[in-house]
Amino acid sequence: MILTKERQASRRIRHLPGEPGIWVMICGDMMMFSIMFIVFLFYRRDDLELFQSSQSHLNQSFGLINTFFMLTSSWCVAMAVEAARARRIKSTVVLFRLGFACGLGFAIIKIAEYAQEISAGIVINTNDFYMYYYVFTGIHFLHVLIGMGVLAFMAQYATKGDFAPIKIGHFESGASFWHLVDLLWIALFALLYLLK
Amino acid sequence: MWLSLVAVTLVSWRFGRGFLIHDRREAGIAILVIAFIKIRYVILDFMEIRRAPLPMRIGAEIWVVAVCTAIVLLYTA
Fold this sequence. Notes:
- The structure holds two protein chains of two kinds.
- By secondary structure, chain A is an all-alpha fold.
- Chain A has seven helices and no strands.
- Chain A has a single domain (about 25-195), classed as Four Helix Bundle (Hemerythrin (Met), subunit A).
- Helix content of chain A is about 80%, strand content about 0%.
- In chain A, helix 4 runs antiparallel to helix 7 (about 165-195).
- The radius of gyration of chain A is 19 Å and the shape is elongated.
- Chain B has one domain.
- Chain B has three helices and no strands.
- Chains A and B meet through helix 2, helix 4 and helix 7 of A and helix 1, helix 2 and helix 3 of B.
């Protein structure tokens, strides 16, 4: 990547990527999920055995694969924004599409996982642990679907070229939302799947 | 960066399975701390908060430490 004078200068100036509105949304969302995490751990203490035994029925491999999908898609999206800043239209399009593809991979695995659980008779009101599991991952899944829409739109939007600063700002906003989705999954994976 | 996140995920997952750390609680703490280290890097480098205006950067770092601490305390209490 060639460091143009423009890019060198921008590295020294403090800059929040995307529009302020998306950051209000991101912070709000993070606050909501933070409270959800705390509530989960608080009630977990009251029923440790139930939580631990229920957790053993979760498909850890699916959880792990999904984590890789999330991390990879986030990386692709971050690279897409870099490409956009360097005015590399094709790379931007491809990278947003790859990010979308990873998101799709996550969605497919998630649906397969839900199907596996439901057919084993594990549903949202099976017990408290599963209530948290379905609610948290369900809300997260909605974020994934919205994010996938955003990424698909970003890819299309990028095909039109003409990367004016305001357009780069739009890419940054969409990318930031997707990183939020990744971030939330990292926390969910640790709390629901890994913690014993 | 991606490589480190992936590597650390695998380590975390292995901790959950009893690798290296045999005490459940210690493994749990390690898993939580690793998760928040990952989250911190997603925030600083993917979300680019490292280069964001200082109040934002400081707020983000405080949030990471505060929520991680709250969660570890609740887990170990």
